[in-house]
Specification:
2 domains, FAD/NAD(P)-binding domain, alpha/beta, elongated, 21 strands, 5-stranded parallel β-sheet
């Protein structure tokens, strides 16, 4: 028979918010269960050097998440490698079902499902995903040693990806639809100073070009957003770095969302409109979207859950 597990606090997601919630909920003696989800460790597992985590002048993203997971385990958080495929917030206790077949019931739920990479939605982009088109430089950059690479985007993600890819590529061209980056100034300065990187301003990716036998990217076509003129750029790899969208599908139709799917919480708290359900990290934060703010919200969510459970005798 399928297994059923009950917990006072179910944490869904395993980025900085989830693991921090696990630490604080464990210290509060709530015996939480944390279900890691499809990407244990979250977005930081696909990041290289992290230079804005307090206490570390530089730390590898995957290493930081390994440490966070170990910390949560040490505090007593039970961490399970499962994926929550459905969540019913209309009943108490709340009911979550895992891909493993396990059913999890909980007196309180902390949602930390984070965000995932956005795509442009081009047919040619979809056609070459995994065959030269990627959204993760740390995952796939190694495959393009000595090759020319294109990065699409203008925020921190795009600049970080471009800089990282210089470790492998012979040349990196950044395509940005505006005439200025949104990335942090220190990151921009590094990019502009790098001899392998060039920027194509005021352009958008119009098409990914490639061969089909064997399948692989050979270049891109970039369109000037002001004149419509097309520029052909040779490339073996194309990395889409245009940001992320909140992973809020589990609560669609159950919790209020805004700004493209971010879960709404009561200002200054992690409380959602459903008592006993809390949201933290990139799932709810459309403004800051930093590892340190996600961790802070994970702490808040655990404390909010502790207060809720104490007030309801759970």
């Amino acid at each position: 028979m399928p297994d059923t597990r009950h917990t006072r606090v179910l944490i869904i997601g395993s980025g900085p918010a989830g693991y921090t919630a696990g630490v604080y909920a464990s210290r509060a003696m709530l015996a939480p269960i944390l279900v890691q989800g499809i990407e244990p460790g979250g977005q930081l597992t696909t990041t290289t050097d992290v230079e804005n985590w307090p206490g570390d002048t530089s730390v590898m993203g995957p290493d930081l998440m390994v440490r966070m997971e170990a910390h949560a385990r040490e505090m007593g958080c039970e961490i399970i490698g499962d994926i929550i495929v459905s969540l019913d917030l209309s009943v108490r206790p709340f009911v979550a079902r895992g891909d493993s077949g396990t059913t999890y019931t909980a007196d309180a739920v902390i949602l930390c499902t984070g965000a995932r990479a956005k795509w442009l939605g081009l047919d040619s982009e979809e056609a070459f995903k995994g065959f030269g088109v990627s959204a993760c430089a740390t995952c796939d950059g190694f495959f393009y040693r000595g090759a020319e690479i294109v990065v699409v985007g203008g925020g921190n993600t795009a600049v970080e990806e471009a800089l990282f890819l210089t470790n492998f590529a012979s040349k990196v061209t950044v395509i940005h639809r505006r005439d200025a980056f949104r990335a942090e100034r220190i990151m921009q300065d590094r990019l502009f100073a790098h001899p392998k990187i060039s920027v194509l301003w005021d352009h958008e990716l119009a098409e990914v070009v490639g061969e089909h036998d064997p399948k692989g990217v050979t270049g891109v076509r970039a369109r000037n957003v002001k004149t419509g003129v097309i520029t052909d750029i040779p490339a073996r790899g194309v990395f889409i770095a245009i940001g992320h969208a909140p992973a809020s599908e589990l609560v669609a139709g159950q919790l209020e969302t805004h700004n493209g799917g971010y879960v709404v919480v009561e200002p200054g708290t992690t409380r959602t409109a459903i008592p006993g359900v809390f949201a933290a990290g990139d799932l709810t934060d459309h403004v800051y979207r930093q590892a340190v703010t996600s961790a802070g919200m994970g702490c808040m969510a655990a404390l909010d859950a502790e207060k809720f459970l104490a007030g309801h005798g759970a």
